[in-house]
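(Structure overview)
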Amino acid sequence: MAGVQTLFAGLDPGLRRETAVNVQSPVQPDTWTVAGRTFTSRLIVGTGKYKSLEENAAAVEASGAEIVTVAVRRVNISDPNQPMLTDHIDPKKVMYLPNTAGCFTAEDAIRTLRLAREAGGWNLVKLEVLGEAKTLYPDMRETLRATETLVKEGFEPMVYCVDDPIAAKQLEEAGAVAIMPLGAPIGSGLGIQNRVTIRLIVEGAGVPVLVDAGVGTASDAAEAMELGCDGVLMNTAIALARDPILMAQAMRDGVRAGRAAFLAGRMPRKLHASASSPLEGVIGT
């Protein structure tokens, strides 16, 4: 029953009691682990594009996230003379994951993460090296090069990449501690465009797989989890929603529902109808 309580924590109490009677999760409790760190929430949220740091903090709280990404180049985490994210989101309660948003070369990304480690001691980081500004697609040659260097320097990179099973395996072999394929272009809100390749990455990976980029609403998050992903990372989908706090709650519940559906195992797809109730013994037959 502990797994049920974990999966459905935060739901309306009446719904939670009703659900717990009929559902048993095979995982007790349902956690995931990356680079030796274990988490209960499978939702990672960003810290950009919000109207204020207060709104950002409220959205993180509503989402139940235990990890937030921090763009080292854009978010103040070290200058006490300017508004600081740490004054609103406590790094003792929520783990900070420095990322290299805005970097277009391996050298820039490596330098950015070296600075992050000097500032906060972080080794677990998110690496993204972009190819160009229009699509914000990752440059996989530079990404792989940066991954190899960072691993040699003792970093534990969670790596943003294209939704390509071969590229994903190359990153894992280079030492990436998590693979983070895009669902669609960053900030597009289009949802997962290539279900097959995401599923192939999941099946072939020996490290956690998290969909990163492209999620627009809760059903997209649920879909990622139903494909067997270990988690979902998002920023724009929450920050630019009409009501970011409510959307954060929706995303929390979408991730939980998708994970529960994956664990439960969906029914087989069929071409023809199948009666919900057996016909044997029905009056008149």
